[in-house]
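Appendix B. One record, verbatim.
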Amino acid sequence: MNFNLNENLPVIALLGAGSMGTAIVKRIGANKRILLGDISEQKLVDMKKEFEYSGYIVETKQVNALDRNSVKEFAEYAASLGEVKYFIDTAGASPNQTSPEKIVALDLVATAVAIDEFAKVIAKGGAGLVVSSQTGYMMDFTPEIENLLRNTPTEQLADLDFVKKDAVSNRAIAYIASKRANHLRVQIAAATSWADAGARINTISPGIIVTPLAYDEFAAAGDRYQKMIEASAAKRVGTADEIGEAGAFLLGEHASFITGTDLLIDGGVIASIKCGKYQLGVH
């Protein structure tokens, strides 16, 4: 049965169909065409059913975020469905799930690729959102390194000396550097390729958010996360719904003057680190 007879619906493209990304999409997805992209075919099947049972119009496409051609095809497919008004990127791996090399490839380089490819198809007046992490605030990099992470052409990012030597020597540093790079790549995109398209793009940096994948991190480093929670002002974890609300705001019309910035949503963890209440212990 065709429940929505409207044509020419604006398109929302989500790369990485996890809890936070889908929470955002559900808040902005009414009367729009949703394209879910993920490497897992089973996840796409499950999420399509969940969305359709809630009345949304959904398409799916398997995509490998590590493959530029796959991301390019995903972006082009989104454009074939209609005007791409919204792009959300949540593809990534957490520190305890994989190697430093894979973190750099997926969380740093692949995110930069997605930003580049969707700049080519985003509609005028559209908005993008990259889901980064509070960890992007956990180390102070030199201005020289930040400049390289911000301005180096995407195809050369993996060849930076800092990436090849420092970032891949330690998975925590790889993750922190990758998430900081997300902020920096969005800054430059907001001023160049996305601005040229007449669109906005921002990042959000969630703190300790309970999702199915987060339990891998809790199992590997539960004591550290517990201490972060205890040191934070909120003294609790966050929820995917809270990220959904913030993401919907940044993608919506009330945020039309916001681009090239990051919204930290961490319950005060970074504040506790910066003021010395919590010692991170990353070098």
